[in-house]
Design goal:
alpha+beta; CBS-domain; 154 residues; single chain; 14% strand; two-stranded antiparallel sheet
Length: 154
């Protein structure tokens, strides 16, 4: 089996100019957890996930009690202010640019599984030889495909 047998071809992408507000709306509207960041020709520049936004907004607190105190008691207004100020920032400020792994449509499916499992990624861009995003493969997509294509056949 090849990556092309499991990848989603109708990829939702964003540009580095997309604001955090626009990204969050896109993620919620499409029920996805992240998207490839591409240039105007569809070439992969990086990845952005809901986790990147959460880490960016994360308070400096380190314990559950500190987080509770930050959000609920002490700094709720500071957090809301940071959130309001951050919503119009371009995702270029927080997107992941390094250590971006990709696979090709003709790659062996097990290669994609290995990358997803080893690096704990949720989503993996599929690129053509020019570096343009032609698909995406995610853990959820893999689970659905395994269920529909392999398990239900038995």
């Amino acid at each position: 089996m090849e990556v092309r047998d499991f990848m989603i071809r109708d990829v939702i992408t964003v540009t580095k100019e997309t604001t955090i507000r626009e990204l969050l709306q896109l993620l919620v509207d499409n029920k996805i957890g992240g998207a490839p960041v591409v240039d105007d020709r569809g070439k992969l520049l990086g990845m952005i996930t809901d986790g990147d936004v959460i880490r960016f907004l994360q308070p400096k607190a380190r314990t559950v009690y500190d987080i509770y105190m930050t959000f609920v008691v002490n700094d709720r207004e500071d957090f809301q202010l940071k959130l309001a100020q951050s919503l119009d920032l371009p995702i270029e400020k927080i997107m992941k640019r390094r250590e971006i792994y990709t696979v090709k449509p003709e790659d062996d499916f097990e290669n994609a599984l290995t990358i997803l499992a080893k690096h704990h990624f949720k989503k993996l861009p599929v690129t053509n030889p020019a570096g343009r995003v032609v698909g995406v493969i995610s853990r959820g997509d893999i689970m659905r495909q395994i269920t529909t294509k392999l398990i239900r056949r038995q």
